[in-house]
Specification:
The chain is 41% helix and 15% strand. With 424 residues, the protein is an alpha/beta fold. Strands 1, 2, 3, 4, 5, 8, 13 and 14 form an eight-stranded mixed β-sheet that branches. The longest helix has 18 residues. The chain is globular and about 70 Å long.
């Protein structure tokens, strides 16, 4: 057992481009004649547990627990930082030297698979597949094969300043129509019905995309080769936000509002809803407004009810050698088991990817977040997802500022984003 903490590698763009030369060895594991699982497996783990000391202790215990069950497998967990994670993983794959397993996101899975850097892992959870939330598996499924086992997930849902709605004599709105109806009532008292974080620092997965999905739209077409956010549904989603802005239903600076609770209109008591709220943000909001003032609700609903929830995936890299394949599968099954996920989610404050793992927290909060898990959208994995997001975000700002109509903003963004997609 060798748990090591490593600093990010010194990298170059040439190393990242060399991904294209990665080989893709057979995904079939090699099992010894006696059926015992043997081998050496290295896992690159990123800060799922924020406290560095607690993280080190947890993963040391995880190594020991796994090796007790599989004494002929040497598991090494190498603790990494998020700094330059993409470059670090890309360089390792290009050099064919690094981890057998690595923690990645769905869009990273799409990118690394595109250049032959990942191996399928269906066999690792063949007996447990039905207990995972379907969306978490779909986020890592490409051409009908699974390229990552969901270890945990983050999920975001609506949080309300209930006091504001009570004082206005309003029920808590959960649909777009109810939000539209509540907006002018609250605006008369100088209250915005809903928050919107328009800063480019905020991922669109937590700002515009949930509304796009709620309208029935998508970022990309099904085949992933064209953008689709400028569809009728996309225009409806952006019009919903712009109409709220014009009616005083969003904060005046929604186009540029920064991330965070401290100093926000929500913490100041001038906003009724934050549509995508994490447990950490919920705790901060309650600290600012009072425990009884803040309640959690299910995800908002337009044509559809959905929210953003991103799983962390344990992926098997092309670096893994056939003689260590069965051992790598054993690690994947162990770390994503019911018992281990229960321990990890308690330590990290995340949510399970398995339906047989209980959600932590107060009962009322558990109910709301459980509802969110059932309809969570993990995002749309695409090698160009982040570049497309960077193109689209300023145009969303333009529409909220009134510089362009929603239709014009999305059409211009689609032209630029499609060029990015074509190049990728």
């Amino acid at each position: 057992m060798k748990l090591r903490s490593l600093s990010p590698l010194a990298l170059t763009a040439v190393a990242a481009l060399a991904l294209a030369s990665c080989s893709s060895p057979s995904a079939e594991p090699a099992t010894p004649d006696d059926g015992a699982v043997t081998g050496e497996v290295t896992l690159w783990m990123y800060p799922v547990i924020r406290d560095e000391a607690a993280s080190k202790d947890f993963w040391e215990a995880a190594e020991a627990g796994f090796e007790k069950e599989f004494p002929d497998v040497d598991l090494t967990v190498e603790l990494q930082t998020f700094d330059k994670r993409d470059e670090q993983i890309s360089a390792a794959l290009a050099a064919n030297s690094g981890p057998d397993l690595v923690l990645i996101t769905p869009d990273q899975a799409a990118t690394y698979l595109n250049v032959g850097g990942l191996l399928p892992v269906d066999d690792a959870i063949a007996g447990d597949r039905d207990v995972f939330y379907p969306a978490t598996l779909e986020s890592a499924t490409f051409e009908d094969e699974l390229y990552g086992v969901p270890l945990f997930q983050n999920v975001f849902t609506a949080a309300y300043n209930k006091t504001l709605f009570d004082e206005a004599g309003l029920d808590l709105p959960t649909t777009w129509d109810e939000i539209r109806e509540a907006a002018p009532v609250l605006a008369d008292d100088g209250i915005a019905v809903m928050d919107y974080l328009g800063t480019p620092e905020q991922t669109l997965n937590l700002s515009f995309y949930p509304f796009l999905w709620q309208a029935g739209g998508t970022v990309f077409a099904d085949d992933g080769t064209t953008v689709a956010f400028d569809s009728k549904a996309g225009v409806e989603a952006l019009e919903f936000l712009v109409d709220l802005q014009e009616a005083g239903g969003l904060p005046a600076d929604a186009a540029t509002q920064s991330v965070g609770i401290e100093g926000s209109p929500l913490a100041a008591g001038t906003v009724g809803i934050r549509p995508t709220t994490s447990p950490a943000e919920l705790a901060q909001t309650r600290a600012a407004l009072g425990e009884d003032a803040v309640v959690v609700g299910p995800p908002l609903e337009g044509a559809e009810q959905t929210t953003y929830g991103n799983p962390g995936l344990l992926a098997l890299t092309s670096i893994n050698k056939k003689e260590n394949r069965a051992a790598a599968h054993a690690v994947l099954a162990f770390l994503t088991s019911q018992d281990f996920q229960t321990e990890l989610n308690a330590a990290a404050g995340n949510f399970p990817t398995r339906t047989d793992v209980e959600i932590a927290g107060d009962e009322a909060d558990r109910e709301a977040y459980a509802a969110a898990l059932e309809v969570a959208n993990p995002g749309e994995p695409n090698p160009a997802a982040r570049q497309v997001m960077a193109v689209l975000a300023p145009y969303i700002q333009s529409a909220l500022r009134g510089d362009l109509s929603p239709k014009e903003a999305l059409a211009k963004a689609a032209d630029e984003a499609q060029a990015v997609l074509d190049r990728s």
